Fold this sequence. Notes:
Strand content: 5-15%
Strand order of the largest sheet: 4-5-3-6-7-8
Shape: elongated
Structural class: alpha/beta
Number of helices: 29
Amino acid sequence: FKGGDTCEYLLSSGRFLGEKVWQPHSCMMHKYKNSEAKNCLIDKHVVFIGDSRIRQLFYSFIKLINPQVKEEGIKHGNIPFEDKSASIKVDFLWYPEVNGSMRQRIKSWTEGSVAKPHIIVVGAATWSIKIHNGSSEALAQYKINITSIAPLLEKLAISSDVYWVLQDPVYEDMLSENRKMITNEKIDAYNEAAVRILNSSSRNSKAKVKVFSVSKLIAQETIMKSADGLHLPESSRDTNAMILMNVYCNKIMKPIDGSCCQPQPPLTLIQKIAFCFFTLSIFGYLIISLIHRNNYRKNKSCADLESGEEKKPAISTPNVSTLEMLLHCFCKLGLIMTYFYLCDRANLFMKENKFYTHSSFFIPIVYILVLGVFYTENTKETKVLNREQTDEWKGWMQLVILIYHISGASTFLPVYMHIRVLVAAYLFQTGYGHFSYFWIKGDFGVYRVCQVLFRLNFLVVVLCIVMDRPYQFYYFVPLVTVWFMVIYATLAVWPQIVQKKANGNCLWHFGLLLKLIFLLTCIYFLSYSQGAFEKIFSFWPLSKCFELNGNVYEWWFRWKLDRYVVFHGMLFAFIYLALQKYQMISEGKGDPLFSNRVSNVLLFISIVSFLTYSIWASSCKNKTECNELHPCVSVVQILAFILIRNIPGYVRSVYSSFFAWFGKISLELFICQYHIWLAADTKGILVLIPGYPMFNVLVSTFIFVCVAHEISQITNDLAQIVVPKDNSTLLKRLLCIAGFFSGLHFFSAMQDQSRH
């Protein structure tokens, strides 16, 4: 850990990921859009002073504001640029040498009431080398001139951002004859002089000229692609301009995926309260543990000195009390949440941008599939979608999704479309599982609902508090929660139709189908009526849960993307349970699901359907168009997979315990990855061990999986305490939870008011 000044790293170090993606050391660089650049630079005046290389940087910079700008105009003269819509002025001033003229121009900004530029970018040297044929006298004069300019630049740096651009290396073999005297040895000497002299007299850290040395590293990799050996190729210039934009704008715009130059966010009121609560829990648990240990020691059997026999203790080891278990859970959770905060809110650990390659996605996929097949065991039961099988399904899907996220594979459309099917499959299981439970058990009690809601939402609520993120940010949990309530409402609302009732009269089956048709109609209406959907979720308190960035559009988009798949899961469960009841399927160990002929036909259709969907997804060219079709066709591959996995008896009778283990903690894995495996709210990658990418992934993954497993256990333990089976006790707990959320809303309102 070298300190928290990521600006220094951004300006001085980094490496290329691939050919064109620049990765600063220790932090993430945001790619600014034109609108973002304008918002950042509104009412600002930016000045570039120097030679033709600085002019190139000037053009790349203004293209971030207006991409339509063409590199026209006087080459050896001043070039003005103005964006009147945002009141932005960017000027290039032609001063190819560090001399008296440049000094006079800089001095004019330090005197009197002259308006100073907000950003000043200066750099020059190659003209001095060229005009004076690389003489040592020219270098000596350069040092004298920089020495005279340095105090002026430091004075400007008190109120403005001042950058000195070091000279990039040249590609000597490509230089024309009149530039042959510009050698890399000479350039290094000039750069060394500039670095030594600048800031040498400044004792005020705020009055420092920022040395823009990263362009040297970029040029070393790309100068051989230069057209003349002197000027950088366009892609390198654009990278330099983007770095400059990040240095100035990140602290203003605070982009999630731009951790460079962003200060650590201050603790909110709610975060401070959470910190106090977890601290008290830790101390409370330690005190109770010490008291219990001392009591146990006092009552422990001691040797009878006379007979040499041991006396039995009068009191046995005390059972763990509810309070102690509660404090124990919150103690562990507090330590885990501290790790979350340090990873993704404090500027302690490094973060890097993702960079996709086919090998970074497909090699880990092959590896985990081999591991999964290696850990194959017999299932306890051979029913379709039995518990071991659904855990296995969740497990391998979650691992694939994790690899997809860390490799940045969302940029590759065929992979994106297949991952969308995996997310849909999770929701399909939600529809299938909850429908099956309510249909078979007929249990619509409050206890069941509270247990499910607690297990789904506990971790997310804690993270919303600790990480200062809205509920909708963890979009999958709100999605699953809402669909659970939809399933519950569909089956619980009068008339309650369950399997026991339907067995007595077949007409109840038609009543249930009518309910499902009504649900499908509602889904169809809301998916094509964005206004109605937004009105429903814009009412308080729903708006507090489902708004992101001030509106519910993101929630509507996420809901719409997989709008039919939960219904498909419910319908599949209904048909499967009906076939099971009428003994139309065989679920014995090793038996095919249907007769051999029917099984073979269905298996062939399933394989063809599975491959057909994959071919269609792989041929997708437009993400928007494919997303429109996805809700209707994703069920094809899901059903195909279920039939392939369950029709052959020998396949249905085994499962992968490796995948099933991960499946049991899949929800925790999905949520925890946001902050302690990935970084910057999934936009980047957490770096615990810099310089060793593979070792870093191994270590961070091990910690991440252990934490997810521990949180799963904490959630299960707390669920037993917070959601008891006794109705009167449960009612009291619900009142306490309502009070907790009321307090949370009160403090949130205070927090919002203080921010505004």
